[in-house]
Amino acid sequence: MPSFPSLQELNTFHHFVHQTLSIRGDIAVDYLFLQCEWKCDYDRVYDMLCAFVVQCKVRKLVIKFPNERYKVRFCWDLFKTWNSLVELNLEGGFMLDVPEYELLFPCLKRLELVSVGYFKDCSVTNLVSGCPVLEELFVEREVYPDNLEMFKVSSVSLKRLWIAFPRFVRGDFLKVVIDAPKLKYIYVLDNMSNDYSFTKPLDLVEGNINHSAETIAQIIPFLSSAKILKLTCIGSSVLNHPHGLDMPMFPNLVRLVIDWGLDLIPVLLNNMPNLEHITFLHQEEPLIVEGNLPEEPPFCLRFKMKEIILPKQDICGKGACGMKIERGEHGYVLEDVPHLTDYIPKLNTHPNPMRFNPAYSVVKQYFVDSDDTVPEKVVVHKNSPRGVHFRRAGPRQQVYFSPDEVHACIVTCGGLCPGLNTVIREIVCALYHMYGVTRVLGIDGGYRGFYSKNTVTLTPKVVNDIHKRGGTVLGSSRGGHDKSKIVDSIQDRGINQVYIIGGDGTQKGAAVIFEEIKRRGIKAVVAGIPKTIDNDIAVIDKSFGFDTAVEEAQRAINAAHVEAESAENGIGVVKLMGRYSGFIAMYATLASRDVDLCLIPESPFFLEGEGGLFEYVEKRLKENGHMVIVVAEGAGQELVAQSNSATAQDASGNKLLKDVGMWLSDSIKAHFAKTKSMHITLKYIDPTYMIRAVPSNASDNIYCTLLAQSCVHGAMAGFTGFISGLVHGRQTYIPFSRIVDHQNKVIITDRMWARLLSSTNQPSFLKPCELIEFQKVELPSTQLLEGESSSSSSSGQN
Ligand SMILES: Nc1ncnc2c1ncn2[C@@H]1O[C@H](COP(=O)(O)OP(=O)(O)O)[C@@H](O)[C@H]1O
Ligand SMILES: O=P(O)(O)OC[C@H]1O[C@](O)(COP(=O)(O)O)[C@@H](O)[C@@H]1O
Ligand SMILES: [Mg+2]
């Protein structure tokens, strides 16, 4: 694209817009996004734009012009005809010169001004004053200086205010005056100005101030009504003195996050009688509170405090970034995921670039509320506690990476699984298209690829078609997890977002990488996407590729059924994947209805004697003339081991399994040869690797897309040490620690296994006394009520 469009190009553009206008007539347009990549004839663009906005009653307007040092004066008079606007975002090459109007935008509720220049001090004041119902104002200033000496906002309707002046660009003194009596939420990140004043007392709900210690001291009396406060200090804290500040009372404050003023803690706590949660961010010095300690502990510590999160060098040595558990009323527990700011407190945030994405901005409230959580249990009793919750996944209003700062990488580890390529594709596309990130690397061949192979550059073009193929375009492997070499490689390449797709073993490895990155204090997030064809990952509803595997298994079961039906006393044996968890076998059996016997690792069985497998096979053949057996690869391993004692491990340390399908087929054949009770024809089908290698089906493709996008949103928002996963149909972020603890297994005392037994009519192979033992150990866990406990978790089996 040339930097200056030719007159002909501009005319074509005008013509196109005029045509659109005449086609649309005066049909209302909800959202209009105008982005110019080049410096152009702004006056003519405004002309067209204004006509369009008025005629089509545009409600939300985004205009993005290139951000240049010499900005173009905004032809402001035209704007005041825009009566329909509810939201206006201006970014880039504008110089706002706003005269005093009584009424400018009568309906405008949200105004975003990013990197625009201001002609005079009164420009911003006039603009805001001309919007009588304005509720949200977002102002981000930029590196090029303008004429502003004082930033004054005066509004009777304003509820939320973001001030982001992150870079120091001028020596001049900039004064900030806020006259907004209805302000409820204020977010300040400011490196430019240090004279703040509020003309009226505030009735705040939340304040988030990242500023110098002096300015925080100036602002703090105005924040005293807040319920939630985050006070973080730019530069060194100079307020380490209890008498340096006249501390007001904070009667409503329940949550405080702070990284400065250690000596103020006793005073702070004394003045915050209702404080329930306090988080101390990173401190240079050990957290030892000396000096004027009150005679008795503050009221909030004695009666109100529910949670204290300490920085890295805390007294118990555990650190704020370990398992983050937060408790609330009525037994509410949030198992939170770590965040970059747990160990790097002074990080800049940026408004989420998705707010300019035309596709997503149609959503009424696109960004996820930071307080949204998803319950682990959805079956509750009237009085049961609210239980464990996970953070809801999705895009956040503020992100911790600017698009050009991100350098991401993707790695796939462990066995294959349908959908791996879809996840890779969707991570790349989400980074590119949603966040404007253009540097994404593929790591070749699993963990060892970090240090022993070249990387692959991934772009939307490269990954365009890969979801139609099975396997992983990046290659995968077992073993090769060398923590130091991997993190060295991440650090050396300047990678700051690591996406790790793999099963339980892979996520254990990811947790180790996360801990090492945190220990080294690197600004890099580690985000996992759980892959397992066996569906053996705890907490989540199911893993991607599982549906495809169950569907593909039907083809093998059908073939086994056809073979069995067409022979006298025909037996079809099908082996399916499932090392420790028999979900594929169970679901494939239930879906097919042709299966007479399903064997899984969780349910022991025996061959000989009364109630044994041979007796059942004979009975079934006599009744029906044929039968189909589905066996998960991990079933009956102890029986197979009796006939073949060698045990070995794969490169990841997983036990290598004996071929139970072959062993079972041989055992059945040998039994009938020995007893001569009937002549049988047995066909053994092993489709295991064929099932793993197919591309994912439609529903898995969609699921993979959601998982990948959620993971990218989480990483951009600065969360780390998490996997994205579906919990009761909602996308969530789950801490690594939660899923590497134990595996998801079929609970054979659940209704789902009972359903299977009833559909196949097979024996349970359990004696009544053994069943009682199982019931004692294996209580259903995902829907446990208070007081119940379980050793493992089930996957919606009830
Ligand atoms: N406990 C562990 N700690 C660190 N890395 C591990 C651990 N378990 C497995 N890994 C690594 O994770 C990768 C995949 O593990 P594996 O068990 O083969 O597959 P999956 O992730 O599918 O369960 C391998 O590179 C392996 O070395
Ligand atoms: O032959 P491989 O590649 O080791 O794979 C065998 C194993 O891989 C799986 O398909 C998947 O296991 P992972 O999820 O641990 O990779 C198991 O069902 C199976 O036991
Ligand atoms: Mg595994």
UniProtKB/TrEMBL annotation:
Keywords: Allosteric enzyme, ATP-binding, Cytoplasm, Glycolysis, Kinase, Magnesium, Metal-binding, Nucleotide-binding, Transferase. Substrate binds at residues 532-534, 577-579, 633, 689-692. It is an enzyme of class 2 (transferase). The record marks 505 as: Important for substrate specificity. Residues 409-713 form the Phosphofructokinase domain. Its cofactor is Mg(2+). Homotetramer. This is ATP-dependent 6-phosphofructokinase. It comes from Artemisia annua.
